[in-house]
Amino acid sequence: MSTEREYVLGTHDDEIERLGMQHRVWRPKVTDAWHRAGFRVGQMLIDIGCGPGYAAIDLAEIVESSGKVLAVDQSARFLSALEVRRDQRGLSHLETLEANLDLDPLPQIGADGAFCRWVLSFVSKPREVLEKVAGSLRSGGTFVAFEYYDYDAYNVEPTAPEFREFKEAVVKSWRAGGGEPDIGLKVPKWLREVGFEVKSIRVHHEMITKRDYFWQWPWVWEQVGLQRLVDLGYLTPARGQAISLFFEGLQSDPHAMVFTPSVMEIIAVKK
């Protein structure tokens, strides 16, 4: 089953907290997509690659007790964190399943909908995962996915060689783990091949400053991700320190801008 090393960003406490912040920042865009996809009370939904389950909690509150949510992830630690919050909220209709998406099947339960966010970009067999998603849905079931399609769009101003070094190390570690940061480009074609009709595609790319709530997403990622890259040996401690100083300077610059990686939002219906 799962081990922490299989997820390049780790499953430590700082990463769990970062994922919570990330979900709060992205929640308006995600819930808008869910509403357009028709996710509603009484449905059976699957959160694929749920991590510590921030989206799964929201989905469980959408479907209410007359529905059901199945949250799937390979990390027992992430699922344990989710189960604590689930029990605190009394969401007994939210169930968890530990499974490696590359190796294990998804249950063929005729679900009404499924959701994944930045999951296909981390697995080594993304097209096969989409086939499993198709098998888990009923005819007419809706799939919502958020995936990067142009990670190189991630940029800052003022920029510096330290930022390019950081971004290159991120991509190197990502691909070394079997993932592909620009996977979104292939997803619509694969969805059609495995039996979906693509209903809508939207692009999310933000230019943000310190005045924006969105700012904390890249800022926290840069701190947690940088330390993880040093821990994994993709950057030396000295280079990590130099890059950290660059980010601190960026944080203190009132005129700094961050251009986020480009994300593709896809809504597709199983034929």
Description:
The chain is an alpha/beta fold. It is 43% helix and 23% strand. The protein has eight helices and ten strands. The chain has helices spanning 13-37, 54-63, 76-89, 126-136, 161-176, 187-193, 216-232, 237-252; strands at 44-48, 68-73, 94-98, 111-117, 137-150, 155-157, 196-204, 207-208, 257-259, 262-270. Strands 3-2-1-4-5-10-7 form a seven-stranded mixed sheet, sandwiched between helices. The protein has a three-stranded antiparallel sheet with strand order 6-9-8, with no helix packed on it. The longest helix has 25 residues, at 13-37. The radius of gyration is 18 Å and the shape is globular. The two termini are 32 Å apart. The model is unreliable at 1-8 (pLDDT under 50).
DSSP strand tally? 10
The 3D shape can be described as globular
Radius of gyration: 18 Å
The largest beta-sheet arranges its strands as 3-2-1-4-5-10-7
The computed structural class is: alpha/beta
| Percent range of helical residues | 40-55%
Strand composition percent: 15-25%
The span between the termini is 32 Å
Order of helices and strands: HEHEHEEHEEHHEEHHEE
Main sheet properties: 7 strands, mixed
Low-confidence stretches: 1-8
Task: Give me the number of helical elements.
Answer: 8
> Overall mean pLDDT score?
94
